[in-house]
Specification:
heterodimer; A: alpha/beta; Uridine Diphospho-n-acetylenolpyruvylglucosamine Reductase, domain 2; 3-stranded parallel beta sheet; 31% strand; B: Ubiquitin-like (UB roll); DNA polymerase, domain 1
Amino acid sequence: MKLFTYAKVAGGASNALAEAKGKTGSHHIAGGTNLIDLMKENVMAPAHLVDINALELNQIE
Amino acid sequence: MTVNGETKSVSIDPRTSLLDALREYMGLTGSKKGCDHGQCGACTVLVDGRRINSCLTFAVMYQGQKVTTIEGLANGDQLHAVQQAFVKHDGFQCGYCTPGQICSAVAMLAEAKAGCASAVTADLAAANVTLTDEEIRERMSGNLCRCGAYPGIVEAIRSLAEA
């Protein structure tokens, strides 16, 4: 697996977009059960992972 | 992170899966590495009471959270109710999938108690779930047992669902 940098964002969804903006190879991660499997096989190789688990998204609008 | 009630601090590569962090860096080898692709469920652990496949998630994502592994279920020499049920109903043969099966069953019983529906639940809006054998098999379908101890596993879980 290629090395990546990691950041966890909290608050509103715009923070997740701001964190990824301008960074080549950024990818958002929530559960990761698909992405991490693909990363293990080098199918996906994100340079920067933005963890969105702490975002305050708890309702369907 | 807090693992089985103890605060653990490790300095690891961000690529380390939660499973590898538990097994290789914290010495908790109860959780097993079966397929390492999220297909077998042998690595199932509880994070804040919810079951997850620890092989398909990075340890770095769980900073500050509560992880419970098979080692953390028993209270001293007193086995957890699910562990007792597995022993009583012969819910294993070789035992490799058992830590995952038991962690999964603990969370699965809590999910059913909270009224979570499954793919085979007839009435999705029902407040109470009756854990029939079909329901138990569906809800435990993420945990494979190559020995085929399923009848014992279902029996063990059914005994707890009825209790």
